[in-house]
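Task: complex structure prediction.
Instruction: return structure tokens for all chains below.
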Amino acid sequence: MIVTARHNAQISGAPEGAPAMVFAHGFGCDQSMWRLVAPAFEADHRVVLFDHVGAGRSDPGAYDTDRHASLDGYAEDVVELLEELELGPVVFVGHSVSATIALLAASRRPELFDRLVLVGPSPRYIDDDGYRGGFTAEEIEELLETMDVNYLGWSEFIAPVIMGNPDRPQLGEELTNSFCRTDPAIAKRFARATFLSDNRADLAAVRTPSLVVQCREDAIAPVEVGRYVHEHLGDSEFVLIDAVGHCPNLSAPRALITAMREYLSR
Amino acid sequence: MTPLGRARSWASAPVALLRLDGAGAILDANDTFRGWLDDGTARDLLGTRLSALLSVGGRIYWETHLAPLLRLQGRVEEIAVELRAGGTPRPVLLSAELHGGHGEGDGDTLIDVALFDARERSRFERELVASRAEAERFAASVHTLLVTTTALARAAGVEGVCEALVHAAVREFRAGAAAVWLVESEGKPRLRAQRGDGPFDEPSTTLLTDLADAAHAGGTAGGLGVDPDLGAAADGDASGDATGDATGDATGDATGDATGDVVELPDGHVVVPLSGADAFHGVLVLEPRLRAGDDTLDLGALAATGQQGGVALDRAVLHEQSISVAHELQRAMLTDELPQPDRARISTDYRPAERSLEIGGDWYDAFWVDDVTLALAVGDVVGHGLQSATAMGQLRTVVRSCAESGVGPAGVLGHVDRFVRRRGVGFGTTLVYAELDVTTGRLVFACAGHLPPLVTRPGGGAGFLWQGRWPPLGVATLVAAQAERTSAAAVRSGRQAGAPLSTEPEAGELELSSGDVLWFYTDGMVERRDRSLHRGLEVFAQAAAGAPGAADEDLVSSLLGGDLNEHDDACVLRLEWDAPRRSGHGAGRA
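Output:
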């Protein structure tokens, strides 16, 4: 219960014993990102949604500047969550940076994972010799500046009140931008941990079968990066869906659901 | 307004207006927006994604925050982004609303966007953000320094200061690892403390010399401005002019920024010089954490910590020098061979205070006054440190030199007391002095403010010797002055002055019986913060009565049973009379 509460985990769908699917949101918003996709799997799966520490309605006190300075800390969180849930090996669906977090967690504790669905993954966002991630380190600094002047739905005065009232969620819903509400200091650290990490070397350690879902046009994770992930993962499949943007889970939910269903039915 | 008028006002509205498809591509834009762009971009505008016209940071923000929010709540308001497709970057405030779009494929989804020019506002906001960031950094620095300075002030000894520094480096500055190297004699660095996994290469002599020179040139006032290129020299290829550069900068940049004396080496290590008021002690080396989400090291606070550390090391070095001299002195005075008469068995033990590095002023002594008279003494000089140790040495010598046949304990204490008064040495010292006739077991004793001697009997009884009391040494002056005033008053009033008032009380006497054990001790054996002295004496008497026959080794700890007073030293002298012995015959000095 402790870890479940820490991550505001929501369990729904088929009764206990059904195969389990866990959905992890990416950098930016919270578990609401899955609201158009997760329900489609509730009929035959036990479905778990959760917020990363520092996002959504996770426990703000659980954020640890040391542990969460790298994606490894987030991967540890995922492992602890799965251990507590005891749902058996799960299908883990990770969007964006959570795809990388899933890979780290699966390489460490493969027995907790049945399969991985990686939506818009990128093991490294910064360009490197012979590798095009799409960004330079300076451009990531620009992102931090943009975040500095946009406190989405955040106010030091009301945020603790909302976070302290998990039993009154309507309080949060009334606020504009609440889906992407994050403590600005945490958001910036998460942005650095996300965009300045290099996890290319971790791909080879993953044995869990996985599906790479790539959007036709994605400014954050370009097609070539998706292919790179597919080529460096041992047991992986690649599917290109006809969607534009980095969040097909909101802009093209049906295409994403279809691709996932097809993969999971095999 | 006519429809045409409305269309015109859409086109020339004082805000940029756009209509996008569900994927964010521009379907239409008004003239105001086109006017903000360069010609090429304006010409090929349709079909371009709005996010592509933003700064890269803005583009990521659009994809990770704004696009999802539009889907989740239908609109976003007042988002600050920067348009990059004009001649110069143009900060704008973006509001947008999404229509339709609940079906798949974005075919029926439209996004209406309004962009407000926010150049002035943005400049103002950036200044606010910058000053807030500055204030936060400052508050964090102050907090870090406060914690670190407190830890340094509490640290005892050089080792303690070094530990406090590496602890602060890892805990407060959040370095991955840290080490302190101090320069020993001949300029050789030695690793004194380390936290986290190195590896830490020994700092090069060149680097240390340059830092030492810079410290001398600039004092500790900050802003030394050591050339970071020194790092190259530190890697081995000692360049001859590095020293010159460092000193040159030091004078030229004396009022420079506070991080000037911190050096960042090419291998990423950060070197903080530890310079005191007049000595360069060494360096604190930090290995910064370089994970993506880690904050950078606060170099300004590190520089200040280096200076605080330097001053703390000044103090610690001085302190340790005086302690080591004091320890030498005390050891020299306590390790004399003790006399061992036939019918008595003497054992002693001394234990220094554990918490404080300072030595105390406790001493014990036993020596022959003449062939049959054995002198025993235990004393306690007020205070700690070198001064107490030298006072103790002098008093011990005075006791030994004035103890002669026929003087007796009261006479000896009188001598020592006069010495204390005249020379101003050891005021307030307590002393118990006794003479034992080793042929008869007759003990004569006097006690200047000291804890009473204890006698334990073979049957299990125990008793304190409360006779022969005397004020602490030097304090008797007050008694004497009082007595003089009293007799002077008696003369003036015409009364005949009687015999002068004795300010030297009679000594106490006791015949030791076979198996009796006599205990002299200092307050470290009985005083505890959590109990009265009375209770302390009771506990000590019980422990002494129950002590095994001849526990010569670790007498102090066996009596205290682990209940050591960490703040005070403790000393015990034990004499067992007529103990059953292997080859006992006759009495007197062998």
